[in-house]
């Protein structure tokens, strides 16, 4: 992996709880709160100064802009929710561009696993734990499960296998 283990370790304790909350919130309400997206951005803005060389830190904001523009286009086409697009944009600066292929494979696997887990749990007694969650009866999939899981898993892998 091209992400440094140091930067992944700096980001991980701040990002992991946000990713867990995004997953929970998207399953419960079928929305990702703007406060979490802003918090994720602020984590990068603050911790990124310590975790990355300054030139790399500044270039990572370009990732945010590119993913935000793509997310807005996908949202306009109905392919992605607005909260998902904003969360993906806020998560983009955490990703080293050299890990993009790995990230796409990780995201694809995570979408499949999250979708299967959600759809299976919907038809098991696990549903009784949270019967009021909107995602159980909503025709769309709560993509925050896959987005939050992918970012968390990427940073965990980066902390372990990063350069």
UniProtKB/TrEMBL annotation:
Keyword Transmembrane attached: yes
Record carries keyword Protease: no
Domain of life assignment: Bacteria
Pfam families named in the record: Peptidase_A24
Key words of the record: Membrane, Transmembrane, Transmembrane helix
Annotated GO CC locations: membrane
One term of GO molecular function: aspartic-type endopeptidase activity
Prepilin type IV endopeptidase peptidase domain sequence ranges: 15-117
Transmembrane segments: 6-24, 36-54, 60-82, 102-121, 141-161
Protein name (record): Prepilin peptidase
